């Protein structure tokens, strides 16, 4: 039971995940302004505006900096991992998506009966990564600083009602 209490008291994990989920939910809004239609399925897709991977990783890194100090070696490690994830999202995964688009075109030209239909929307543009990397620290740091852990949030709600 102590492990569950410890998990629910982990404000860094909680707020970083909230930042990630928020970025995924914001994809519905950004998609609406880009296409003019409300499409809830984008919540469960990779790629798109903003990058939830970037939001999660920069949220974790900034939260570690707040908790342990911005001069701590673990913060440096978290920043390094976040940079690798963001580079991968805007580089490798985006390139893989572009290749899938071209392979799908070739597959359609070769045979109408046996098309590959590879997933094309995999990565992010640099702007999508930047927006995600702003959302992450904003939500995580504000949540950690002003609200606290999920247990603290539960206490606020219980005492309010």
Molecular structure report:
This protein is mostly helical. The chain has one domain (2-149). The protein has seven helices and no strands. It has helices at residues 2-8, 11-35, 52-68, 73-90, 92-110, 126-146, 150-160. α2 runs antiparallel to α3. The longest helix has 25 residues, at 11-35.
Topology record:
Elements: H1 2-8, H2 11-35, H3 52-68, H4 73-90, H5 92-110, H6 126-146, H7 150-160
Helix pairs in contact: 2-3, 2-6, 3-4, 3-6, 4-5
Cα-to-Cα separation, first versus last residue: 26 Å
Radius of gyration over C-alpha positions, nearest whole angstrom: 19 Å
User: Which structural class should the secondary elements be placed in?
Assistant: mainly alpha
What percentage of residues falls in helices of 4 or more residues?
over 70%
The parts where pLDDT drops under 50 for at least 5 residues are none
Tally of separate helices: 7
TL;DR?
The chain is mainly alpha-helical and 161 residues long. It has seven helices and no strands.
């Amino acid at each position: 039971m102590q492990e569950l209490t410890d998990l629910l008291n982990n404000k860094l994990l909680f707020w970083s995940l909230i930042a990630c989920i928020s970025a995924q939910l914001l994809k519905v809004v950004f998609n609406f302004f880009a296409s003019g239609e409300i499409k809830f399925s984008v919540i469960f897709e990779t790629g798109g505006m903003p990058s939830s991977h970037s939001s999660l990783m920069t949220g974790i890194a900034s939260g570690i900096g707040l908790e342990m100090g911005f001069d701590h070696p673990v913060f440096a490690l978290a920043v390094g991992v976040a940079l690798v994830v963001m580079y991968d999202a805007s580089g490798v995964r985006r390139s893989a998506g572009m290749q899938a688009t071209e392979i799908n075109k070739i597959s359609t030209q070769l045979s109408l009966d046996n098309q590959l239909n590879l997933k094309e929307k995999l990565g992010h543009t640099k702007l999508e990564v930047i927006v995600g990397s702003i959302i992450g620290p904003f939500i995580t740091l504000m949540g950690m600083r002003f609200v606290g852990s999920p247990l603290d949030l539960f206490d606020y709600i219980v005492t309010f009602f």
